[in-house]
């Protein structure tokens, strides 16, 4: 597989190519696009409508074209529509933890959503802050979205193609996340696993709940330190259900401090759910490099229960 040259500060990935091997002689273009270049069916459909979306040996072709050994299939990997993100003016505290031409990782502060929401129309967004600082042409695709109150590491892809690759790796060994949370009380035992399906709470438009007909959800926890009736816990989600960690901790009787939805709102203690995306181990979808990144515990959580 071959990618167009791309480094930090460069334009997002524009093309991706693949040379047909002897074992693949007789395969169709569609097969190579799906099996080797990992394009989704929806993405392939978009490519067929682009002037130079799919090329074989530099010539425009159809997805049904039969390939032979040595043929080079090239496909556009960039976005096919202009960004629709409105910039959010301001000097936003949005540190970039890691970046190259394909993706970036930000340390998201509390009070920002990933992108605009009908539920929170006036809330500043990561997408808007990046559009303000980098220009409205900046391509934004959030990979692991964090709730408004959650802080920490969030991955942003710079093209739809890289976004698709990253989304497929979520909740595998190629994309592992570790969280820190402050919860009320101390779970017993202090190391454990919560295996409880999660579904919608039919009494709310936003809340989720543990319910037997919900989707499978598994979270691992470990108490790291304790102080004043609170515990700092490490959380490792195996799945990615909406509000999973908040719901799971509340389900065992230890909701997160400040969690107005699943526990008790307490602005004097902390004005948000005490949850932080602390560490990320990511296999880069293009270069294969293994990234191991961390974001220190934010001050409001460290004041409640410091790290050991």
State the gist of this model.
The protein is of the alpha+beta class. The chain has helices at residues 29-35, 41-49, 126-134, 160-169, 244-251, 299-302, and strands at 2-3, 15-19, 54-56, 59-60, 72-76, 96-99, 103-108, 141-142, 151-157, 175-184, 191-195, 198-200, 208-210, 218-227, 230-237, 275-283, 290-294.
Let me know the average pLDDT. 89
Rounded Rg: 22 Å
Q: Look at the helices and sheets and give the structural class.
A: alpha+beta
What assembly state would you assign to the polypeptide chains in this entry? single chain
Distance from N terminus to C terminus (CA atoms, Å) equals: 45 Å
Shape: elongated
| Content of β-strand | 25-35%
Q: What's the number of helices?
A: 6
Topology pattern, helix = H, strand = E = EEHHEEEEEHEEHEEEEEEHEEH
Q: Low-confidence segments, ≥5 residues, pLDDT <50?
A: 1-10
Number of strands: 17
* Largest sheet features: 10 strands, mixed
- As a percent range, the share of helical residues equals 10-25%
